[in-house]
């Protein structure tokens, strides 16, 4: 699943390519992906892109208002790539006709210079989401977002307040978008490895030093990942993400810090990875969702 660093990389790439360009055509081939109907998706056609922003894991293409429209009524194209979605960029969009149900492409957008992108989704479980709204707050997933951990206004003390009294495993806290925006399964593994913390540790058990370590690990891990994604085209972002991982997706490999074997815990639809030596005092985590450390 694309997380904050990759989505920021996409936002930076698109901002440099499409800001000021007119949207000539929008084609939706997956009706299930389109979550809104007013304004219609065709309302984007003929408008120019004013800005490209990221909200958590959501990408937002804001348009300039038409001459006869109020500034606050200019539509936004907002999308969330979910678990298996991606953005495929073209300097010249292919002329092939898109047939609904016959392609992994959910949406195609073409600009005045012939460039554009497809939103694609692999697999049979479809959860990519596209919205056309006048205000991004109309997207429920954006409205409920917690603070962005790389926002300069997000401080160590704010993190401490978010953790205080929360009897939830820290892995779940980091992934909860209503608590902290933008971090998912992969980067929560990386942050906890850098902080030398068990993913099963309860947030309410954290002392002052624990909060210090977690804040430093979160800031460093995400800052480095955003820097690694910066300037890369969409086609290269997935490989950049995989190449920067120390534990996530590296089950059975050696931990780059201590050399111990990276282990996994499997759940219904995902897994977490960790290093026993670095994070759990050498103990193995039980491979079931609500387990604590094996006795």
TrEMBL record:
Keywords: DNA damage, DNA repair, DNA-binding, Glycosidase, Hydrolase, Lyase, Metal-binding, Multifunctional enzyme, Zinc, Zinc-finger
Gene3D superfamilies: 1.10.8.50, MutM-like, N-terminal (3.20.190.10)
Listed PROSITE patterns: FPG_CAT, ZF_FPG_2
Domain of life: Bacteria
GO BP term, pick one: base-excision repair
SUPFAM superfamilies linked to this entry: Glucocorticoid receptor-like (DNA-binding domain), N-terminal domain of MutM-like DNA repair proteins, S13-like H2TH domain
Annotated catalysed reactions: Hydrolysis of DNA containing ring-opened 7-methylguanine residues, releasing 2,6-diamino-4-hydroxy-5-(N-methyl)formamidopyrimidine
InterPro entries in UniProt: FPG_cat, FPG_N, H2TH_FPG, Ribosomal_uS13-like_H2TH, Znf_DNA_glyclase/AP_lyase, Znf_FPG/IleRS
Listed CDD domains: BaFpgNei_N_1
Needed co-factor(s): Zn(2+)
Residue ranges occupied by any FPG-type domain in the UniProt entry: 246-280
SMART domains for this protein: Fapy_DNA_glyco, H2TH
One Pfam family in the UniProt entry: zf-FPG_IleRS
Molecular function terms, GO-annotated: 8-oxo-7,8-dihydroguanine DNA N-glycosylase activity; damaged DNA binding; DNA-(apurinic or apyrimidinic site) endonuclease activity; lyase activity; zinc ion binding
Formamidopyrimidine-DNA glycosylase catalytic domain residues: 2-118
Similarity comment: family membership: Belongs to the FPG family.
Name by which UniProt lists this protein: Putative formamidopyrimidine-DNA glycosylase-like protein
Species of origin: Microbacterium lemovicicum
């Amino acid at each position: 699943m694309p997380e904050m660093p990759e989505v920021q990389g996409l936002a930076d790439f698109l901002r440099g390519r499409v800001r000021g360009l007119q949207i000539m055509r929008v084609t939706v081939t997956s009706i299930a992906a389109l979550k809104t109907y007013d304004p219609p998706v065709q309302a984007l056609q003929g408008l120019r892109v004013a800005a490209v922003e990221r909200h958590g894991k959501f990408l937002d293409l804001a348009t300039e208002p038409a001459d006869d429209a109020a500034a606050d009524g200019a539509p936004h194209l907002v999308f969330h790539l979910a678990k298996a979605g991606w953005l495929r960029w073209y300097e010249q969009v292919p002329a092939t006709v898109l047939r609904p149900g016959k392609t992994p492409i959910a949406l195609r957008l073409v600009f005045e210079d012939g460039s554009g992108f497809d939103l694609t989704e692999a697999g049979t479980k479809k959860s990519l989401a596209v919205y056309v709204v006048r205000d991004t707050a109309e997207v429920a997933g954006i409205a409920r977002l917690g603070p962005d951990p790389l926002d300069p206004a997000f401080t160590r003390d704010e993190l401490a307040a978010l953790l205080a009294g929360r009897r939830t495993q820290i892995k779940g806290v980091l992934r909860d978008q209503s608590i902290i925006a933008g971090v998912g399964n992969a980067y929560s593994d990386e942050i906890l490895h850098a902080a030398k913390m068990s993913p099963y540790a309860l947030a309410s058990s954290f002392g002052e030093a624990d909060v210090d370590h977690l804040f430093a690990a979160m800031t460093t891990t995400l800052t480095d990942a955003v820097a690694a994604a910066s300037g890369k085209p969409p086609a290269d972002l997935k490989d950049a993400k995989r190449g920067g991982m120390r534990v996530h997706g590296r089950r059975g490999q050696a931990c780059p810090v201590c050399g111990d074997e990276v282990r996994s815990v499997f759940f219904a639809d995902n897994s977490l990875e960790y290093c026993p030596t670095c994070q759990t005092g050498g103990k193995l985590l039980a491979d079931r969702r609500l387990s604590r450390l094996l006795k």
